[in-house]
Amino acid sequence: MITVEHLSNRGRPPSYGTSRAAITVMLLVMAAVGSSVGATRADPGAAVCSPMMVAVTGGHVSATLCAPTAPTDTVVLLQPGASGSQWYWNATGPDVAEYYSFTRAMNAAGFATMVIDRLGTGNSTRPPSWTLTASTAAQNILEVADDLRQGHLGASPYRKVVVGGVSLSAGTALMAAATDTAKRIDGLLLTGFSHSPSYPDAIAIAADSFRPAALVDSARFAGYDLGYLTTTPGSRAKAFFAADTDPAVLAGDEENKDVFSPTEFVTAMTSTVLPMAERVHVPVLVANGAQDRLCAAVCASSDILHAAEAPWYQPESQLQTFVLPDSGHAINLARTTAAYQAAVRDWITSVVRS
């Protein structure tokens, strides 16, 4: 692992005395060393991973760039959803099967991955919760995408940048693509998202699960203002998962949960009702679980989801849809997630990179 800045003390915002230029130089040197070590691995899923802080509007976001040992021109840029963390995209643990890691699957397919925390989450700058909006998160996505294309983050410039999100961060990803006048995004992966959400279930989940993080776990979230919310212990299984979810995965998800702000949640929801998707000019894949409480009846099958989503997009988006039958909202962590990973891999290879 390449550590650029100290990433411990999760309850306190990190210090940012190091300039962006200095960070870039350190990354380039460390990545060169890391690549020489990683190249000896025989594991096809092996990758050189670099935790780092990236300067964006509003501060810095904590991020992890994982690149396969073989050269690649494609990177998948990801954000966790509301109350999720980077662990959602790279689920690991002594009792968690390796196939649950989406980033590992993409690295094994020959793509780099970069997971970025939103402002206020992970080790990112933590401003007052009420100042956070989905539009700022979308702007940050575009800034990081530009850095990846320019080769500013310790790797060679990437020719293709696929942006992906889940739930709240799918909304911010859609916003980013809809405002991407500089053509920094080449493909859009939206998961746990549709333009036909079940509002009654969303309200029920919010009422049952979301509380101020500092009151839920005063030690873990010490210093967080009361506008930062997380989920109550044990509530995530019913809200986000299918009934047969691996208990080790549920435990890992609970242990690694994070926070979100109501202001960014509400502003992200506008992506489901406003015609933002018609301004997206890159290929789009929408992937959901058939047992997702938030997706209502449109997630019964891939065809039904496509019929519901297609009117929102332009033909040039080449909309594809995928529904995983035995998955809830957290499609990355379903027992059958390998089928979804394969669908994403094939879409990137045959559509985005073609």
TrEMBL record:
Where is the AB hydrolase-1 domain positioned along the sequence?
Answer: 75-334
InterPro entries associated with the record: AB_hydrolase (IPR050471), AB_hydrolase_1 (IPR000073), AB_hydrolase_fold (IPR029058)
Keywords, ordered alphabetically: Hydrolase
**Residue stretches spanning the membrane:** none
Please give the Gene Ontology molecular function terms for this protein.
hydrolase activity
Source domain of life is Bacteria
Work out whether the entry's keyword set contains Hydrolase. yes
Pfam families, alphabetized: Abhydrolase_6 (PF12697)
Query: What name has this protein been given in UniProt?
Result: Alpha/beta hydrolase
